[in-house]
Write a structure and sequence with these properties.
Length: 116
Amino acid sequence: MFTGSHVILYSQDAEADRAFLRDVIGFPHVDAGGGWLIFKLPPAEVAVHPTEGEPKHEFYLMCDDLDAALARLGERGAEVTRPVAEAPWGRLTAVRLPSGSELPLYQPLHPVAHNL
């Protein structure tokens, strides 16, 4: 029934953030016209968490080895914005996008669904 998911990141400097996803993260892409890049993402999964506050949505890039991913991104000029947080269910950090916002990175230590 569904063929994929489409994630939208809103940015105050979309051109620079697109270049970061293309050049630093290294995602393959298509040009939908006029430099409007649409990126191929790795396999995805979705989780629904309870909240007492306002509902919100989050986007994380998942990796098998967070330390190796950070080393590769650092070689390409990415700035890590948070120390790696260790939790029983995973390891978390983030890198800065050129627009100033953060792109969270996540190494899950729990079973994952994206390879089903």
